[in-house]
Each structure stands twice: as C-alpha cells, then as structure tokens.
Specification:
By secondary structure, the chain is mainly α. It contains nine helices and no strands. Helix 3 packs antiparallel against helix 4 and helix 4 packs parallel to helix 9.
C-alpha cells in the first residue's frame, strides 16, 4: 500500500507530461494537414476557381468551420475521443481549403518566412506561458475582450476599406494572439496538472481541445503577421 501511495505522484507526473506532449503533437499534425491541403488546393486552378467564383461554396466552408469548432467545444464531454479527433482533422482540412487563397495573394517566400517568424514567436510565448509563475488570467481576459473588439472592427472595415485601419487591426491582432498563446498554454497546463491525473479518454479529450485552441492561436498569429510582413504578388 505504501509503495502504491509513493508511486502515485510519479504516475500523475508521467501522465501530465504525456498529455501535454500530445497537445503539441496534435496541434502540429493539424498544422501539417492544413498546410498540405492549402498548397494542394492553391496548385489546382480548377479547385481555386470553383471556390472563388462560388460565393455560396466559400461561405459554406467558413460556416462549416465555425460549426465544427462550436460543436467540438460544446460537445467535447459527451462525444467519444475518436469522434473528437475526426472532427479536429476535418476542421484542419476545411481551414486548409479556405487558407489556400493566401498562396494566390502572397509570394511563397514571404509565406515561408512569415511561418518561421510565427513559429519562433509562438514557441517563445508558449514556453513563457508554461514556465511563468505569474497568473495570466487577467491578460487572458483582456485578450478575449480585445478579440471581440477586433472582430467587430474587422467587420466594419469590410465596408470602410481603410488601409490604415487594416494595419492597426493587424498590429493589435498580433499582440492579441501573442498574449493568448501564453495564456492558453498556462490554462492547458493547469487543466492537465491535477494530482490524480491519468491518461484516459476524458483527459485525452481535454488535451485535444487544448491542441485546437493553440492551433487557432498559431493560425491567427500567422495570418496577422502575414498581413504586415507578406509580399503580395
């Protein structure tokens, strides 16, 4: 009995490490899928033209993306881990299709360089979020409120078409997702740091949801940086 009690903390720590590693494995897998799908669609003039010329199809893809994220976030506790994984992969595919248009707008060199800048920035903030002892909840709350504001501002600018406002939104977007990367990393770490943590379907789903959150942080940070640093064709 005593040996079992002594072994529990080590087992919980091993489970935490395994689950946290899984977060980044799933996030990386989703990014790879998105990248390959985006490049494949971008190279196919037929597919790209079909989406660009059919507004119903384009908006349908965007609505499907939002629907998958909403369903996965809302129903994560009631669906199986397998179904959650399939939905996450489906989302990364859909996102790849809609992101294919950046290859038609920006040069491949600027997309590649921005990706590496994003990866470096993301890594630094994720490490900071993981190791810092400071509670980042206040920063997270501010970023979430700012996210609502930036969505509204972006919608307004669709009609105003202000270049200056677009630049300001992009800078704010970069700062916003830099902060969210650190905050979300710390939040995921806390969710996976229970003393009795073990690897099971429930904790795997928590890790998968964490992977989706960080995936979204990475994608949005990349897109805002691309708007600032990308060279248009």
């Amino acid at each position: 009995m005593e040996m079992n009690q002594l072994a529990k903390p080590y087992a919980a720590k091993a489970a935490q490490i395994t689950l946290f590693r899984s977060v980044y494995v799933w996030m990386t897998l989703a990014l790879v899928i998105t990248a390959f799908v985006a490049m494949y669609v971008a190279k196919s003039y037929t597919l790209l033209a079909a989406i660009a010329q059919n507004s119903l199809l384009f908006w349908g893809l965007l609505i499907a993306e939002i629907g998958v994220v909403w369903y996965l976030s809302a129903r994560i506790s009631s669906i199986s881990f397998t179904k959650a994984t399939v939905l996450f992969i489906l989302y990364s595919i859909l996102n790849g299709v809609t992101l294919s248009f950046i290859f038609a707008i920006y040069t491949a060199a600027s997309i590649a360089s921005t990706f590496f800048i994003t990866a470096g920035t993301f890594a630094v903030m994720a490490i900071f979020g993981y190791v810092t002892k400071k509670d980042l909840s206040k920063i997270g709350n501010i970023c979430i409120m700012a996210l609502i504001g930036i969505i509204i501002a972006s919608l307004v600018n669709l009609f105003l078409k202000s270049a200056m406002m677009d630049v300001v939104i992009s800078y704010i977007g970069v700062l916003l997702f830099v902060g969210l990367t650190a905050y979300d990393t710390q939040k995921i770490k806390r969710l996976l740091s229970a003393d009795d943590m073990e690897v099971n379907e429930t904790t795997q789903k928590i890790a998968l949801l964490g992977a989706m959150t960080l995936y979204l942080d990475f994608i949005n940070l990349f897109l805002y940086l691309l708007r600032l640093l990308g060279d248009r064709k």
